[in-house]
Specification:
It is built from two helices and 16 strands. The protein is α/β, with parallel strands linked by helices. Strands 5-8-11-14-16 form a five-stranded parallel beta sheet, with no helix packed on it. Strands 4-7-10-13 form a four-stranded parallel beta sheet, covered by helices on one side. It starts with a strand and ends with a strand.
Length: 164
């Protein structure tokens, strides 16, 4: 069966998620739900009606609270929630990445890193070994997380941030 991905949110993060999903080659169909973008096949509140048509769904909304809320709604509706990892990212085999997170190009997720639900790890970010990233975080481009660090849930970094 070919996999079909429904992305909640067709703004800038939605387009990033779409490109990552395309790069994986795992999805034959990728569509959006969004209240304000004409590329969307439906509105956000119509997510339940698409359940039988899409094998997976993910949320690509910048606001962490809304992103986590929508992930819960999708899970309760029965959508499997993937992790999207760009093929150019390095992810250690011992790393754990929870549902609804997406890992952008040229990132490094090192040994025994734990990334919680619904995180956005932007291009060029390095998360060094034994670090924990809380739910709903967005580590912006070029963020460096030192080994053994803990990043609290819903943290959003600026480009080039260093967390020690």
């Amino acid at each position: 069966m070919q996999q079909k991905l429904l992305i909640v949110g067709a703004g800038q993060y939605g387009m990033v998620a779409k490109e990552i999903a395309e790069a994986t080659g795992d999805y034959s169909v990728i569509a959006f739900l969004d209240d304000n973008n004409p590329v969307a096949i439906g509105k956000l509140n119509e997510f339940e009606k698409y359940r039988d048509d899409y094998t997976h769904a993910i949320v690509a909304i910048g606001n962490a609270v809304q992103r986590l809320d929508w992930l819960d709604k999708l899970e309760q509706c029965g959508y499997p929630i993937p992790v999207l990892i760009h093929p150019t990212a390095y992810v250690s085999p011992s790393a754990e990445i929870a549902a609804g997170s997406f890992i952008e190009p040229h990132t490094v997720i090192h040994t025994e890193v734990v990334i919680d639900k619904g995180c956005i790890i932007s291009a060029g970010t390095i998360v060094n070994h034994n670090s924990k990233i809380g739910s709903g975080c967005h580590l912006n481009c070029g963020t460096i997380v030192a080994s053994n660090s803990v990043v609290p849930s819903q943290t959003k970094t600026q480009c080039g941030t260093r967390i020690v």
